[in-house]
Amino acid sequence: SSGLSPLGSLIVRVLLEFRVRPVPTELFSLRRNEAVVISGKKLAQQIRQEARHEVEQWVALGNKRPHLSVVLVGENPASHSYVLNKTRAAADVGISSETILKPASISEEELLDLISKLNNDDNVDGLLVQLPLPEHIDERRVCNAVAPDKDVDGFHVINVGRMCLDQYSMLPATPWGVWEIIKRTGIPTLGKNVVVARSKTGRPHAWGRPSPGLPAGAHLTISDRHSRSSEKHTILADIVVAAAGIPNLITADMIKEGAAVIDVGINRVHDPITDKPKLVGDVDFEEVKKKASYITPVPGGVGPMTVAMLMKNTIIAAKKLLKPEEREPGKAKELAAASS
User: Fold this and answer.
1) What is the largest CA-CA distance in the chain?
2) Is 166 in the active site?
3) Where is the Tetrahydrofolate dehydrogenase/cyclohydrolase NAD(P)-binding domain (predicted)?
4) Which entry of 125, 153, 238, 284 is annotated as an active-site residue?
5) Where are the domains of the chain?
6) Matching CATH number, 64-153, of 3.40.50.10860, 3.10.20.30, 3.90.79.10, 3.90.1330.10
7) What is this structure's pTM?
8) What phi, psi does 258 have (nearest 5°)?
């Protein structure tokens, strides 16, 4: 693909970095003649239990409890909901956290000053600024203002760049979550065709391109949501990762029998039956599950995994595993393995 690649590119780069290992089948719900519906909630609970144990061990050794600071700007209901999920997850695994609320009228310079203070606060291990931000604020500038070793979202250009070069970095939580779904479910990637359907343009935090040479031996195609050849690519794919932000973009006739479908999309649509808004993904779930081998639901799929991986990143930040002298080539996989 040409131009800057958003979230989909990062997803593929992370999900193809590591080896596959299966997990117990009770993590899935299996319906006859339909896909295995992967419970991201149950997988996330497993990861949060691992994180909780890691925090307990860290604190038992006399170390300070990990602390996460979240900056929330404005009154976006979805953002407030996401932040609440993150702080609840932090409490669940034993991470202390705070939410710093700022009005939508805050200036970019005021926000950057706040980030600078949090960067220099030794009590703050992990730091994230909830996106999206008001239009008068440059999101890329804000993401790059967060210290790379506290950047638990993995949005800083240094972390994105180092990850793409297979160097020690903070992995972005959503792509890492997608990879954990594939790895822990036991979906094979060796020699398989992987297609990522993504938006042609994306927010600054999604910049990045996968580097050449995919360790798991998969064949990668990135398909823009407006591409006329999307269906040509998806119909050949063994694994389809949908991250375009378009409801029902991936339909049953676009995938082959037995494909694994990972739905990253989160779209709010009007439900004509209940006359209320509801969350849906990028995949026509009811129809595609009749044809796929594995599928993730929305909600309850990738979303909980993103939050779980954010907790793992906060622990990485607290342990100072990203000190400059330790940032060596070939460390990205070791970092994830150390926190698994």
Assistant:
1) 58
2) no
3) 172-320
4) 153
5) 64-153, 173-304
6) 3.40.50.10860
7) 0.82
8) 90, 5
Written as six digits, the tokens of 112 are: 């950057």
What digits encode the pLDDT tens for the residues 134-170?
A: 999 999 999 999 999 999 999 999 999 988 888 888 9
- Is-contact 278 14, C-beta < 8 A? no
> Among the options 125, 130, 284, 331, which is catalytic?
130
Overall CATH class of domain 173-304: alpha beta
Residues ≥6 apart with Cβ < 8 Å to 153: 128, 143, 146, 170, 172, 173, 205, 310, 313
Contact 242, 262 (CB under 8 A): yes
Read off the pLDDT of residues 222-278 as tens digits, 9 standing for 90 and up. Answer: 777 665 567 888 999 999 999 988 999 999 999 999 999 999 999 989 888 898 889
Nearest in space to 146 (alpha carbons), one of 164, 125, 165, 177: 125
Is there a catalytic annotation at residue 238? Answer: no
Is 86 catalytic? The answer is yes
